[in-house]
Amino acid sequence: MKKVILLISACLLSIGHTFAQSKQVTIKAGTIVPMQSVNTVLARDVEEGQTVDFRVSQDIYVNDCCAIPRGTLVKGKVTEARKSSLAGTKGRLGINISGLTLANGDQIFFSNTDVRISGKNRTPLAVVTGLLFWPCIFIPGTKAVMPAGYEVQGTVASTVSVTAE
Fold first, then answer.
1. Which residues of 2-38 are buried (b: 16+ CB within 10 A; e: fewer)?
2. Which residues contact 138 (CB under 8 A, 6 or more apart)?
3. Could you report the per-residue pLDDT of 60-114, keeping only the tens digit for each?
4. How far apart are CA 145 and CA 83, in angstroms?
């Protein structure tokens, strides 16, 4: 019985210690949040509306408290996905990152955090060489690729209070 009481009191003390460490902090509008893409994304392999994962690449501190921990998962939404095609047309990839949700459920929204990647347009090359050598009209543009580790910066849209550890 004594062991059970000691175990329960130890659990209650650790819970109290956890709550004592958390603190409300205010993240100001305009704060920069650096992120990196988790996976390589090719425009030909995704569709509009699909989600793409990013991770916060460094801790964001406010008043000596970690307000946004490094490694926090951030979801982006594909807004444009066009693969390269014949006659030199380039591939295009657009991703919007609207915000993130912390582990405790607090949400932080970003303003105008869009990723735009496009391949190289080869239309002039395809047309000019196609006039001389007809098979050259089939030269495709280059692909739109966002490699894993691609760096993006989110800007906090409005001042928000979050629970920091």
1. eeeeeeeeeeeeeeeeeeeeeeebebeeebebebbbe
2. 86, 87, 126
3. 999 999 999 999 999 999 999 887 655 445 678 999 999 999 999 999 999 988 9
4. 10
pLDDT digits (tens, 9 = 90+) for 125-154: 444 454 455 454 454 456 788 999 999 999
Expressed in percent and rounded to 5, the helix, strand and coil fractions of the chain are 25, 40, 35
pLDDT per residue over 110-125, tens digit each? 998 898 887 655 455 4
Q: How far apart are CA 164 and CA 104, in angstroms?
A: 9
Q: How far apart are CA 142 and CA 121, in angstroms?
A: 7
Distance CA 13, CA 153 (A): 39
135 burial via Cβ count (<10 Å: 0-12, 13-18, 19+): exposed
Whole-model pTM above 0.85?
A: no
Q: Quote the CA–CA distance of 34 and 31 in Å, as a whole number.
A: 10
